[in-house]
Amino acid sequence: MRETYDLLKAVIDASTAGITILDREGNVKLWSPAAERMFGWRKEEVLERPLPTVPSGRCEEHRVLRDRALAGEALGGVEVIRRKKTALRSISASGQRHFGMSKAAPPASSESWWI
Q1: CB of 61 within 8 A of CB of 80?
Q2: What is the Rg, in whole angstroms, of the alpha carbon atoms belonging to the chain?
Q3: In this structure, how many other beta carbons lie within 10 angstroms of the beta carbon of residue 102?
Q4: Confidence class for position 104, pLDDT limits 50, 70, 90
Q5: What is the pLDDT of residue 63?
Q6: Which of 33, 50, 72, 115 has its CA 20 to 30 A from that of 63?
């Protein structure tokens, strides 16, 4: 178990993708180093709090997408607007920066976590 945890942590820490894990209520449980670089919040600022990248006018959209993922739907190619600590920022699936962000989520594999 410890070996699997260490391997998974190493992959997440080395990834250039901003990886977050949320609980069912949308609170951050994991915030990767790449998420820190991409969005500007340090892990200590976001853990156990609602996902800070969701702009205030997009909370319902985020909740609906989270519920779909928790219901087992694989989300891919969905474009959403997210914000950095200092401004709006978005990235398309091709890596182009613009006002829209691609979101991909595998089907939820746990009763209490949304990845």
Answers
A1: yes
A2: 14
A3: 17
A4: low
A5: 95
A6: 33
CA distances from 7 to 11, 20, 56 (A): 6, 17, 36
Q: What is the 3-state secondary structure (H, E, C) of 36-105?
A: HHHHCCCHHHHECCECCCCCHHHHHHHHHHHHHHHCCCCEEEEEECEECCCCEECECCCCCECCCEEEEE
Considering the entire predicted model, what is its pTM? 0.72
CB 49 within 8 A of CB 28: yes
* Euclidean distance between CA atoms 113 and 8, whole angstroms: 16
Going from the C-alpha of 45 to that of each of 19, 22, 61, 114, the distances in angstroms are: 15, 14, 23, 19
